Amino acid sequence: DHRKQFDAIVIETTGLADPAPVAQTFFVDDNIKALFVLDAVITFVDCKHVTAHLDEVKPAGVENEAIEQVAFADVLVLNKTDLVTPEELGAVR
User: Phi/psi class of residue 61: alpha, beta or left (left: φ > 0; alpha: ψ in -120 to 50)?
Assistant: First the structure.
């Protein structure tokens, strides 16, 4: 049984990506569902650029991926905190 060889599997999407299709795989694909459990969605937040991404206005019908990632996350990890002032970090929090 290969599952016994791993404690966990981490799946990473690069940059801004809608996490829903990846997470959905764990609920709709019977083979995946039988082998794995989705434990958490963890989103790394780039403190230097997150505000601009969250405030970005998208065309009608286009989702803001940054908002989707933050809303979908079980855990947010603040990244690149050394690149912002304490006031900027406070605004992100």
Answer: left
